[in-house]
Amino acid sequence: MDGSQKIQLTYRPLTAVMPSWSPDGQQIVFYAFSGPRPKLYTIATQGGTPREMIPADPHEEWDPTWSPDGTRIAFGSGSTDPNSTILILDVRTNQISTLLGSRGFFSPRWSPDGRYLVALPFASHSLILFDSATQKWEEITKISLGFPNWSKNGDYVYFLHGENQPSVMRIRIRDRRLEQVADLKNFRQTGYWSFWLGMAPDDSPLLLRDIGTKEIYALDWQAP
């Protein structure tokens, strides 16, 4: 992939954020600002007109993620509201349901086998895990983090950690073991929030690096 076949999929007035590929690779879901509230949209990977998924929903719609079978999309009902919940959209029926016990959670991410969801709580710096088999949530680590991503085999969740000393870390699900994957101390991150983490198909972490330059100039100036 060298970027030579890039296609612009969205245009103003949409400001598209946090795209997520469908499992079959045919669609991309994202949220976008075109009015006072962010809303979910899908678009074909080869281009076309973005389709608003839930036009009648009056709430905010944030940070979507596909289920592994492509039949559902999990998303947050807010990003700054501590009373927001995680919602599940059935893409076949367009019906929405609330994930049990998810009040105050955001940024859901489905495991590759579809059994688990991880999410982030507003009230604390931690990572929580929902087990669909038991219908229960569990805090699996208490650490400042963002942008959780599952490994392809479902054994690990990768995430960005820290602000003053940032790093890429991962947690092993079976025993909750934490590991540092990469030290980002001298890495100039960038992105919509000044940082971002994704995963390549081979489980290599993807980051956005700022390679721009900044210059300081001295000018002789005299006022008229």
Quick summary:
With about 220 residues, the protein is an all-beta fold. It is about 0% helix and about 45% strand.
How would you portray this structure in words?
The strands form five sheets. The chain has a four-stranded antiparallel β-sheet, with no helix packed on it. Strands 5-6-7-8 form a four-stranded antiparallel β-sheet, with no helix packed on it. It has a four-stranded antiparallel β-sheet with strand order 9-10-11-12, with no helix packed on it. Helices cover 0% and strands 43% of the residues. It is an all-beta fold and 224 residues long. The protein has two domains: 139 residues, TolB, C-terminal domain (Neuraminidase), CATH 2.120.10; 69 residues.
